[in-house]
């Protein structure tokens, strides 16, 4: 038996949660917080700019600051959840998110609004913490099914955030109501977390590598800032080049430090192991696919028909008519994907998912003249992303010790964020140079989505590592390998 498999057996939960269905439902609400906070603010950026009498460039920092805060804090919070009570860390993050939501709801200042979004950036860590809690509380043959539910909620929540925002902002009232909604929702989630998440003593020992955490935060933030602002600053601008070069240098120095640290923030040996490395690279590509579909579709359907393509949809129409079917498809696919991951292995499921993604993006590129074509293509693309979000963390979890689950899944979440940022930058370059983008720009975006799905499929196919989760589940109980019922 390999080291990882031995560690997996040793880290199995000593006492499982008495009501696993309630725990999964409660953590799904926690994860829904992440998705809503990510997407709800995007449709109201223009409204914020008008109501605060500021420029679109200034308001764009509402999104950029949130992303940078996520990159800086997610690995550290993931490590804290490995070392200390996961429930306390979860509630601490939710308290920070609540403070950010309240501040955003009451302020009329751009700097304070950006500060609020920095606080809300801590929400990105809620998903890896929730995965770590599931691993601690559930038997292994329930774990992948539960993770699939959470991943489906993550994808579905993005669509929900857009729809709810569209309904709230009908008639263009004050943007503050969006943040009052996130405030009320976060309060409800805190109550749920207090009730359903048990308190456990932490078996893992160790300490936080604060220097490593600072180095990783600085390096990631610099690189992501260059990626997100490169289109507006100019890719050859000294600031962009300096951030890319400086951030890369810091990350190289961080890697050197972590290799030599007695108790590193994250094990570089783990990150460099072939299955983890290829899985995280594939996660970058799936994250790119999400934003190629989300941003590409959202803007494509809102292009006026006078341009010769598009459907002239409003934000609400785009959300409900064109995006929600895909989000619902992704959620349903995620609910059942755990069965197939257990039966056939995560890698085979990912290959099928990537095939669906390629088909969806190619259809978007070459058959987008009728609404039903766009909707069907969006459903295929969302199925791909949802299956990817469910299977990729399962691969990561199957390769690491229980005491590393938080930091390992946090790094996987950062890989997804990097992919989304790169895709957003590509979309901005292709669509931002004209007031009304050309149709070929959208075709290029959708073809890029197909290419990213194909590359993800290749990476997973060549990893050639044994599917440890499938093996261990079979060993635990053949009769329960297909049982992912919630109660």
UniProtKB/TrEMBL annotation:
Residues 14-468 form the Major facilitator superfamily (MFS) profile domain. Its main location: membrane. InterPro entries: MFS, MFS_dom. Keywords: Membrane, Transmembrane, Transmembrane helix. It comes from the Bacteria. It is found in: Membrane. It is a multi-pass membrane protein. The keyword Membrane applies. The keyword Phosphoprotein does not apply. The chain crosses the membrane at residues 21-46, 58-77, 89-108, 114-134, 146-169, 175-196, 208-227, 239-257, 277-298, 318-337, 349-368, 374-397, 418-436, 442-462. It holds the Pfam family MFS_1. This is MFS transporter. It comes from [Mycobacterium] fortunisiensis.
